[in-house]
Amino acid sequence: MKLFNLFIKYRLWIGIASLAGAILVNVTSGFWPSFVLYLLAVILIVTHFFIGPLRLIQEYLESGDIEGAEKMLSTIWFPDLLYKPIRSVFYTLKGNMAMMKQDFDSAEVHMKKSLSLGSAMKETEGANKLQLGMMAMQKGDMKQGESYIRQALKAGIPDKESAALAYLQMCQIMIQKREFRAAKDFFRKAKAQKPTAQQVVDQIKQIEKYIARMPG
After folding, report:
1. Which of 116, 118, 145, 194 is deepest in the core (most CB within 10 A)?
2. Contact 91, 117 (CB under 8 A)
3. Would the pTM of this model clear 0.90, i.e. be above it?
4. Rounded distance, CA 87 to CA 78, Å?
5. pLDDT tens across 112-146, in order?
6. How many helices (H) and strands (E) does the chain have?
7. What is the CATH number of domain 58-156?
8. 159-208 tens-digit pLDDT
9. Is the Cβ–Cβ distance between 80 and 116 less than 8 Å?
10. How far are the Cα atoms of 28, 41, 77, 161 from residue 20, in angstroms, in the given order?
């Protein structure tokens, strides 16, 4: 596995070396002896720009090495050449990185690019729209935030913690709009997710104090 990862990491340079070798063999011995090297060079260079090193980026993220993942992302020089679904994942990752740095403007730009490309995974679409909704709420744009969060719930959110957070946010929006019956419904859905993240659990406890006293 490590050998394969090294191959992916240096695939472009191996391709360039193969191309240089093909040209040398072509000059000294003719085209056909160099054909295999030309073919290898084309395959390696094209797959580098068409697929990218997303496998390596995923491994960095799974191990918690955010800096390593960010450096690997920076090796994708021409994202427009990536295969469309992979390009969508690329911009999602860029958006997540920007979110970690609290660079919400850049995160929003990247997330919107990812959504505009579509996604092979519906859950990714839901997660992106949830983040856009949360960013809109932070900016005070409740209407846009509600729209994105509703779209996220409709598309499907991959984990229970995020789904609970989305339902809680909708609950708070409904409270602000004084639509108390809807607020209670969203609160019940949030609790039904049985989240364990302390931040989400604390929010449920805070809102629960007021839910019972609401009319409707």
Report:
1. 145
2. yes
3. no
4. 10
5. 999 888 765 556 788 889 989 998 888 889 999 99
6. 12, 0
7. 1.25.40
8. 898 899 999 999 999 999 999 999 999 999 999 999 888 888 898 998 88
9. no
10. 13, 9, 21, 51
